Automatic annotation (TrEMBL):
<dbReference type="InterPro" id="IPR005111">
    <property type="entry name" value="MoeA_C_domain_IV"/>
</dbReference>
<dbReference type="InterPro" id="IPR038987">
    <property type="entry name" value="MoeA-like"/>
</dbReference>
<dbReference type="Pfam" id="PF00994">
    <property type="entry name" value="MoCF_biosynth"/>
</dbReference>
<dbReference type="GO" id="GO:0016740">
    <property type="term" value="F:transferase activity"/>
</dbReference>
<comment type="pathway">
    <text>Cofactor biosynthesis; molybdopterin biosynthesis.</text>
</comment>
<keyword id="KW-0501">Molybdenum cofactor biosynthesis</keyword>
<comment type="similarity">
    <text>Belongs to the MoeA family.</text>
</comment>
<comment type="similarity">
    <text>Belongs to the MobA family.</text>
</comment>
<comment type="function">
    <text>Catalyzes the insertion of molybdate into adenylated molybdopterin with the concomitant release of AMP.</text>
</comment>
<dbReference type="InterPro" id="IPR001453">
    <property type="entry name" value="MoaB/Mog_dom"/>
</dbReference>
<dbReference type="InterPro" id="IPR036425">
    <property type="entry name" value="MoaB/Mog-like_dom_sf"/>
</dbReference>
<keyword id="KW-0342">GTP-binding</keyword>
<dbReference type="InterPro" id="IPR025877">
    <property type="entry name" value="MobA-like_NTP_Trfase"/>
</dbReference>
<feature type="binding site">
    <location>
        <position position="21"/>
    </location>
    <ligand>
        <name>GTP</name>
    </ligand>
</feature>
<feature type="binding site">
    <location>
        <position position="99"/>
    </location>
    <ligand>
        <name>Mg(2+)</name>
    </ligand>
</feature>
<feature type="binding site">
    <location>
        <position position="99"/>
    </location>
    <ligand>
        <name>GTP</name>
    </ligand>
</feature>
<keyword id="KW-0500">Molybdenum</keyword>
Amino acid sequence: MALTAVILAGGQGRRMGGVNKALLPLGDEVFIERQIRKALPGTNEIIVVSNDEALNRFLRDYESVRIIADQYPGEGPLAGFQAGMAAASCADVWVIGCDQPFLEVSAAHFLLDRMESGAFQAALPVIGGKPQPLHAIYRKETGLIAESLLKKGERKLLALLDNIPWYGVDERQFAEQGISLNFADDVDTPEQYAKASLTLKGVTSFMPHTDRSDRFRRHALQPEEAQRLIKEKVRPLATERVPLADAWGRRLGDNIVAPHPFPPFRRSGMDGYALRTEDLLQATSEAPVSLTVIESLPCGVEPRHPLNAGQATRIMTGGMVPEGADVVVMLEMTVTEDRDGQSFVQIGKSVPVGLNIAEIGCEIQVGEALLPAGKVISSGETALLAACGYADVPVMRRPRVAVLSTGSELLEVGEPLVPAKIRNSNAPMLASLLREAGAEPVMLGKVPDDASEAQQRIRQALRTCDLLITSGGVSVGDYDVMVDVLAAPDVKLLFNKIAMRPGSPTTAALLDGKLIVALSGNPGACFVGFHLFVSPALQKMQQEKPLSPQSFKAFLGRDFPKINAYRRYIRARTELREGTVWVLPIGDDKSSLMTTIVDADCLIEIPPLKEGLERGHLVTAWKLS
Ligand SMILES: Nc1nc2c(c(=O)[nH]1)N[C@H]1C(S)=C(S)[C@@H](COP(=O)(O)OP(=O)(O)OC[C@H]3O[C@@H](n4cnc5c(N)ncnc54)[C@H](O)[C@@H]3O)O[C@H]1N2
Ligand code: MOO
Ligand SMILES: [Mg+2]
């Protein structure tokens, strides 16, 4: 695609103290050098519109870069635009401000593609609902319209937009292309310049699109209300069939009903003789009764002969009891003898009817409800399913849950420590928690505190995942990027504050109908948030009951002197002491701690109180599954 780039470098940079912004240093380049380096590979020529000769030395090495002066000097950006258009040799022109150091050729090409799909004369990024006239594509002819506007005294580029048909490309469309949104960010103020320098170092990026004061205005929900909202927004997933051998740990996809009785035949419970109790009525140790053995049955062999009076069948444990028999007498109570090639059994005692025979269906009747959908398949369930012939088992599809960690401070687990950084421990912890909850973690890795990058990864992942969880960036800090990501117009915020500790800024939202739970970055809060707000969603997706963690009453194992304005959920371990249940808070209850997660098997609920609680107080605790 033939494309001219026009860089408008005529501004005064008033808010930057009157410097020419094209000459601002960024890393080891100045803006204009960086822009040329980045724009060259995707364009046929670059035209820099400027009257500043100081720029020359950065341009002269390039054959396809020209510098031209305004035809209407001092008339503002529209004049620069007009001059650039007049000089352009291609029909399509990418117009860039010299203060846009993060320009992106891929974004320019995407805009150009969009414009070609219709009768448009320009294609512009629309960010936060506002068209951005710079870092946009224009047809060369629009220069003539600019000129006529200039003659009417117009100076602003935006005026052009009222006079041409243009196509707007919003954040979402760029994100879908994997294009990071900061390409159009401009540097007008020293603050923005400072942020640009940080972005270059990978520390952060501009996040100018949310009203920062918004993040302080939050309405706190009670934890139960937040849980209710979350459960309301998810549905059970589809089911699939897996071989029984792979079904361990999965959740049943269907109610399982017995397809036949069990045992399916009258089964012997002992190695012995099947016979008729009637025949033993007179038997005593002095005068044992002798019966003719008509058959010897190993397990798995169907009897050939029903029993008549005076007869017995030798039978093994699990064997099928012949018709006519109403008891199995164990071998130890019998004496066997062979006479003339015929076997006889002698028994010296009468026995009650039914002894050692498991009747058909005595364990399971046909049609009986055996296992409910959603039940976790463990050893007992596996045995039942096998007995009922489930070579393939209907199971709930595992929820695919994307895990994204935000934080420029995060290192990969294998990286050595460097000052101010820590290793990402939340993501591996969340992956384990997800596995424990039956889900399939889809690890998206980490993003620096860059809202556009986070947003892009999130949108992409949601296409193939059922749920997305993030950690970090939900509070009120400068780099708390999830706040920006979830402020996008197509995101429906469910809540961003919960009246509890830890994890009060835990946030949930819906995007494309899918749930995003943004957990706190503090490891302890992240852990608690998962159990209280992610687990219930996973349970519902897998039809698992009960739908919330189960509570129990127990004695507080040690004093808890902290005074609480909020309800607290403290990590604790259960202990049985002389037949009573105690719950012991583990370590200090700070949300930043992760050592306290190690032995936690429950959360103690501490209500908001004006004074602490003493050891031995009866408290409510929640079992962690
Ligand atoms: N001025 C205020 N500051 C804070 C408030 C507040 O109300 N006003 N709330 C505090 C509370 S409560 C919490 S909880 C945290 C929430 O923090 P964020 O969710 O925004 O998380 P970050 O700021 O990104 O990080 C916090 C902490 O966690 C560490 N972290 C982050 N990600 C990971 C990870 N993947 N593995 C290990 N550790 C991680 C991070 O380095 C920080 O130390 O905000 C309080 N602040
Ligand atoms: O709500 Mo935060 O987790 O207390 O520190
Ligand atoms: Mg924060």
